[in-house]
Design goal:
The protein is mostly helical and 405 residues long. The protein has one domain (3-396): Alpha/alpha barrel (Glycosyltransferase). Helix content is 48%, strand content 11%. It is built from 14 helices and 19 strands. The protein has a three-stranded antiparallel sheet. A hairpin with a 4-residue loop joins strand 11 (256-257) and strand 12. The longest helix has 26 residues, at 3-28. It starts with a helix and ends in a 9-residue tail after the last helix.
Amino acid sequence: MSLARASRSARWIAALALLLALAGAQARENGGSNVAANSCSAMKGRVDAMPGNGAVFLRSYDGPQGVGEPQEPALKTAAFVYDEALATIALVGCGALPEAARIGEALRLAATTDTRLRNVYRAGIVDGKLLRNGWWDAAQKRWVEDGYQAGTATGNVAWAALALLALHDATRDAKWLDAARSLGRWIVANESDARGAGGFRGGVDGFDPSPAPLEWKSTEHALDLVALFTRLAAVDADGHWGRQADSARRFLDTQWDSEGGYFHIGALPDGVTVNRASSALDVQLWSQLVPGAKEDWHRALAYAQRVHGVDCGFDFNDDRDGIWLEGTAQAALAYRVRGDRAATEKRLACIVREFAAGDYVYATREPRITTGLAADAYYFRLPHLGATAWVALAALGRNPYVAAN
């Protein structure tokens, strides 16, 4: 270990000790004193394992038991932008700003040098050139890439911008704000939609030069965009961001079922008809975090428990075939924001047993659970960066939708 790295490690240990001294009682009452420390140190350790101080993307999933790469070819080297954004925000909250900035720099490069921000890049050191994720298919004897991974989801763009704003909040370096502003402009220019109540389309799927437009609209994306545009409006008064936040909020209001006390998942490809085909856990939870959340939306937590609750946690969909640990961490934070201390403690106590050997949190408690997104779409019990980041956010009480105090 170099002296510089040893010094950084010493500073990290001291900073983490201070952080946990200030928030330790909170962590202990939320299912164990190691929840915040384990999740923060796991992410920090992965960044520090990358040589140098330059930009990096972390692999989103480990292999079983936290050993090596996952077997699924599409996941072996995949760095999902959503996971990278969450890790950046969480590391800022952990007090690990140099590590957060290394991932943030990779996001900034993607935001400012690629033709559009992709859903997935290749994990590893980003040495001035972004690599799109792919793999060699021996049966076909050719290089393969995935259309979703090469696509651009509006919500993922919003999350990347929120991560860049978290770094701007922490450093006041204009480069982070400039990149976040660029992503916001891309969303407005490419995904604004006048159909029905307005709002924003889902993004694009597939490969350049002709990716397929996603004409549906997502409640989850609307929540992300209310948060993003509200944040941008606070730091960039000339950007007309408030008007964009209002557009996302108007669509969001159309998705609230006041009789049932829950949010629908979004609108069908006609941009107007409510999609009633499935229940979405994350929109019930994230609606508690979004700036300007209405008091009536509190009822969505009861709906989530009734429809998605499993033991001490929550399932991704409503078949309740297992616990989705990322969503369970989201619930812990949602309950914390809403002031329900006991419910927060219960969910974090559920998670504290689910750290893999490499200290990432598993995606699921069971070997696999269904998602309801497609017949063969599952979450597997693999250590997951995104789940780990949400656990850190919940344990630290850090709402990723709002500026840190």
